[in-house]
Amino acid sequence: MKKIEFNIPFFNKKHIKNLDLLIQNKKLAGNQLFSKKCQKILEENFKFKKVLLTDSCSSAFEIIATRLRNIQKKEVIIPSYSYPTVASAFIRNNFKVIFVDTQKNSPFIDKNDLEKKINKNTGCIVIIHHYGYHEDIDYFKNIKKKHNIILIEDAAQSFNLKYKNNYIGTFGDFAALSFHETKNIHCGLGGCLILNNKKYIKKTEHIWNRGTNRSEFNEKKVKKYSWYNLGSNYYPSELQSVILHSQLKSYQAICNSRKLIYFKYKVLLNKINSKNFKIICNKNSNYHSIYLICKNNIIRKKLQNFLKLRNIDAPSHYEPLHISKFFKKLIKKNQNNICKNSLDFSKKILRIPLHLYLDDSDIKNVTDSLEKFNL
Question: Which domains does the chain have, with CATH numbers?
């Protein structure tokens, strides 16, 4: 039986069609021709105020946390159900991380828990737009205004997703996108930092530029090239940017192809009525992911094994950060970081294959298998 992979990164020869121009240009290290072309597409097409291309979404968070390391209010609220490098970036920059719980049977923030944890020391909130869906934007805009808090969007999975005609990533002071090979648009490994608040742009650009005033120097705005701030090497290489540029140039066609597969799935999934799991395949999506919420962890394990026997790869996802070995060593006892819903959700989620190499028979095989599963 043919194996149905969870993800196969979309890639073809067109994505390296500019390789000759890259070789001719003889600039490979980063922040050169194709990196700048990518940044321009993202700024102009998606109305991001300032885009800095990075070698990963994790690096974008490193830059954000470094930029904010000297703010007075040193607590940052982060969903426990998230990726470790988001929290690591802030811990490395001397923030106190407070984990917030998710809603019951949902990856999105529990607002009651959040409002209990906001206090006079809260400087930032990170919100995560999970699985190609978005958080409650209006609510968090109000929270930002009410408490004078810096809002940061983790939009790693939500490229090309809109809310009220504006793109996700335009609402926070900072935002980050991922171009990892598991995402809709990718360059193997890459990301970008989005700056929507102009007061943060200059110093953030210094950090991104290895802590220097390289941009001003190259634009002849200053006479000397000098070390200004903490910084590091966050650029993607031009080889990565060539691939990303090609995908960005055809992002609409790629997204439409994913949309077609997504709605083929949706038609068949709507016919399944299971007592063992709930299917999350909503209309307002960027078609990044379809997932199941199983009744409990035992059912998830049995379903995962059932699908594995049918050669279908269906992984879970994040483990909550508040129960990690690292965080338990860091904070031996902290009642503020109890996140029961996150733990429960992490034990019940199962994701099904979604990529551009699925054909109709693959989709039918997956949905038929889900329909046949019964306990």
Answer: 13-249 (3.40.640.10), 251-372 (3.90.1150.10)
